[in-house]
């Protein structure tokens, strides 16, 4: 099989999720830069890869995909390496629940309403940040209740749920607000320390 291609930017949480899955599987890949925030706009050619002009998109031996969760599952199933999805149907359903919850409730609040607002705005919207922290607290509480005993979210097996959560929480803890809130959830804080120490996490860090 040929080398897969990931289209996107190294600043993107969702591009990083795909790159983390590839790293954990030990799969070499090419990252083709696509900056959806570029002043000149999204390149016209990119809409052939993603109908909605979002990132990431993915290609492997002529097979094209977009949507992060679909890409992550394909990579896990198409390539050799450690299995990243539980066989047990209950654990697999919980993995999918965590991923869906993070997409629906964590990404916007943790990344945009808190971290980006604090890092990128000269005068941050404190009301927006407060609302984001409230939503983030609910998400972390739910994540704590769903976490199984063991080092990872589903227990002893590292899964796609861990790799989906890591870049979102990684962005959240770039700011003191996020660090302080995470400290209120020691199980998740311990998980965060373990996932952040994995070699793939360092390799997919955005270069300054």
What does this structure look like?
The chain is α+β, with helices and mostly antiparallel strands. The protein folds into two domains: 5-78, Glutaredoxin (3-Layer(aba) Sandwich), CATH 3.40.30; 89-203, Glutathione S-transferase Yfyf (Class Pi), Chain A, domain 2, CATH 1.20.1050. The protein contains eight helices and four strands; from the N terminus they run βαβββααααααα. It has helices at residues 13-25, 68-78, 89-120, 126-146, 160-172, 176-182, 186-196, 199-203; strands at 5-8, 30-33, 57-60, 63-66. A four-stranded mixed sheet has the order 2-1-3-4, with helices on one face. The longest helix has 32 residues, at 89-120. It is globular, with a radius of gyration of 17 Å.
Assembly category: single chain
Strand content: 5-15%
CATH architecture call of the largest domain: Up-down Bundle
- Which class do the helix and strand fractions yield? alpha+beta
- Domains counted in the coordinates: how many? 2
Gross morphology: globular
CATH class of the largest domain: Mainly Alpha
Rg measurement, Å: 17 Å
Q: Main beta sheet: strand number and arrangement?
A: 4 strands, mixed
GO molecular function, one term: transferase activity
Organism: Mesorhizobium qingshengii
Protein name: Glutathione S-transferase
Domain GST C-terminal: 88-208
Keywords, please?
208 residues; four-stranded mixed β-sheet; transferase; transferase activity; Glutathione S-transferase Yfyf (Class Pi), Chain A, domain 2; Glutathione S-transferase; Glutathione_S-Trfase; 2 domains
């Amino acid at each position: 099989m040929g080398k897969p291609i990931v289209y996107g930017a190294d600043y993107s949480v969702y591009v990083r999720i795909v790159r983390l899955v590839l790293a954990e599987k030990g799969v070499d890949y090419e990252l083709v830069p696509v900056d959806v925030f570029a002043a000149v706009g999204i390149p016209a050619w990119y809409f052939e890869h993603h109908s909605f002009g979002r990132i990431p998109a993915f290609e492997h031996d002529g097979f094209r995909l977009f949507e992060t969760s679909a890409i992550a599952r394909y990579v896990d199933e198409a390539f050799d390496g450690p299995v990243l999805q539980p066989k047990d149907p209950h654990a697999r359903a919980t993995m999918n629940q965590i991923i869906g919850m993070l997409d629906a409730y964590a990404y916007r609040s943790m990344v945009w309403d808190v971290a980006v607002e604090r890092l990128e705005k000269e005068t941050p919207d404190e009301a927006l940040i407060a609302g984001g922290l409230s939503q983030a607290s609910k998400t972390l509480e739910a994540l704590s209740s769903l976490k199984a005993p063991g080092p990872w979210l589903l227990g002893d097996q590292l899964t796609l749920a861990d790799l989906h959560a890591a870049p979102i929480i990684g962005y959240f803890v770039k700011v003191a607000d996020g660090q302080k809130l995470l400290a209120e959830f020691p199980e998740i804080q311990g998980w965060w320390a373990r996932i952040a120490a994995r070699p793939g996490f360092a390799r997919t860090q955005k270069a300054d």
